[in-house]
Amino acid sequence: MKDTIKRGEQKRKASATYRLRNPLQNMYHNAKNRAKKKGLPFNLTKDYLSSIMSNTCPVLNIQMEFGKVNRETSPSLDRIIPELGYVRGNVIVISNKANSIKNSASTKEILMVATWLEEQLSKRQEN
Question: Which structural domain, as residue segments, surrounds residue 22?
Fold first, then answer.
């Protein structure tokens, strides 16, 4: 039993090390698996993902880094129109933070929050 636990820990560590050393390949395989699981189209290549990858989040203009403790700054593959799947022209690499915001609210809700926040900040600056 002890050997089984030890082997499991070794596999987890090796898997984590592999993901850190091969982030693009990991992103590719994860997307391919999600597409298959959800029955979505998939036509991405690792070269295509590399071509759309940036070190800066195009949404929040923050530095993105693979493998950091702060998951908010980790790159995340986003489907712009989710039902179209993981296809060229419909995916972009953005920060996990931006993707989380996008996934938890509609466009209208995001705009409502932004408008409300701008009004609140403006009121406080006037005082």
Answer: 2-96
Rounded Cα gap, residues 92 and 16, in angstroms: 24
| 57 in any annotated domain | yes
What counts of helices (H) and strands (E) characterise the chain?
5, 2
Q: Give dist(CA 7, CA 124) in Å, integer.
A: 58
In angstroms, the CA 80 to CA 89 distance is: 9
- Please report the pLDDT score of residue 7 as a whole number: 76
**Which range is least confidently modeled, 66-70, 83-87, 91-95?**
66-70
Residue 5: per-residue pLDDT:
66
Closest CA to 96 of 70, 123, 116: 70
Task: Give the residue, 26 or 37, on which the prediction is more confident.
Answer: 37
